[in-house]
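User: Show me an example of a complex going from sequences to structure tokens.

Assistant: Sure. Here are the input components:
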Amino acid sequence: MMALAAVMLVWGAGWVINLMLARRGQGTAGWAAPLVFGLTLLLIWEVGVRLGNVSPIILPPPSAIAVTFADSLPTLWADFAQTILKGALTGYVCGALAAFVVAVLVDRSDFLTRGILPVGAFMAALPIVGTAPIFVKWLGSDWPSKAAVVGVMVFFPILVNTVAGLRDTTQMQRDLMRTYGAGYWPSLLKLRVPAALPFVFNGLKIATTLALIGAIVAEFFGSPTVGMGFRISTSVGQLALDLVWAEIVVAALAGSAFYGAMALIERRLTFWHPSQRR
Amino acid sequence: MRNVLPILTVVAVILGLWVMAVVPMNIHLAVDQAQRDGVVVTPETPAARQDVGALALAARNTGVIPATYTLDRPRLPGPQQVVAELWKTTVGTRVTSKQSLVYHGWVTLSATLLGFAIGTGLGIALAVGIVFFRTMDLSVMPWAIASQTIPILALAPMIIVIMGSLGIQGLLPKAIISAYLSFFPVVVGMVKGLRSPDAMQVDLLRTYHANAAQGFWKLRLPASMPYLFASLKIGISAALVGAIVGELPTGARAGFGARMLVGDQYGQPLVTWAALFAAAITAAVLVGLFSALERVSLKRMGMAR
């Protein structure tokens, strides 16, 4: 009863602060309101777990997760390096490069383009994570098999977006390049690739989350004794849920940083696009 | 219709690459098998064969090449083997049997559909809240967007354990993972859709003296339909992935994910491949269903492009 009352109190307090912030207008509310909302949720979690006597085996309070996070930094870093730096990033770069090359090759033929757009969009919707056991069997349980799963997962979204982007020039722009006497390569590099960049980055941003999911889930099928997926599945077995949550915090931070990095590069490279103007 | 030929060409190229890859992938296994059956192969010892590249080995033992397509436990099965396994486990087996992919498919599909319904319902409700209450927009929306960048599937094993310790097992934990995955695309798409009417249309309704509810039912909701269908198609395939992954790390005994795991652990690659293709076909059917629904309803609403 008391836990419920405390939770309601925290929720109400957070809501009132946000109502006041929302009334005050654009400036501070833009970043403060989501912050207050997040803090309110964390507080509710903490208070609810502590006062409600929830077993830490079911749901550890955020403070316990923070302590575990700080205590097991070396483990978390090793897992991060194994899963994200080796598995996800290698696969992401290989998959993205392969997608670019195929997209540029396919783009030369209108016939192939019309075929590859629907097929690629279809493949992008399939549960490709399921190929993980097959790749683990082929390439062993260390990071190359994870990189392969990630590569296949990110390939199709990036391919479809790049192919669609390379077609996104108007007749007028193409005619202008022709009046300049530009051949295939100059018009590709100076007109069509820059025009495709907003689409390419859309694909690259979608693929960041897929890369992390692929690398983590592939470890459920077999991995060396290090890695985020390995740690999550073994810690769940040992009911060490605070360590699982710490890994999820790492995954969330890595995912946001990865996405943020892509968004930042996009802003630098496609500053001319309407969606980037401020 | 004019895209049919290009699509068939691309599919044929992919199938051709697959068929060609079968020989080098399986040749070592096939040559080992042939030697055990008494066929003379070169080089003669398995150790020596390990040092020979796959293509060179195939070139030296051309007689064994057909056998690469019929191995019981291939590294890469031929397309015809996967089709045969699919046929055997769907049409050739009783639906109630533990071997039947229809049975396993229904287990995964029911979790997917339940989760999709929960996720879509909550997503639409939250989107309506976000559009009508500025406070919710300011505080919740950034989290809804940020959550897209987080590998949510990492949560799957834990959700199953938490719910298992609360005594909830079976369908619901998987459905919750599916719901979580289909929730955010729907929120983001619906918020965009409900805000898609331009100022002129909103002003017109104001001159008609329409109140907020009328504005919602007569303008905003119909205008959001194209966005809703786009989100639903993303959401349903995400929900299927969620249900499959929900079966992986938890020792589930039924479902596509469980079949993949069984095939992996007991060295039956055909089972894994059949489950994989069955899952792909299910995803294709679900997305196709929503595409058809989208075309029909947008046409009836006069919004077909």
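The lines above are the inputs; the final block is the predicted structure for all two components together. Residues 71 and 277 of chain B are 19 Å apart (CA to CA).
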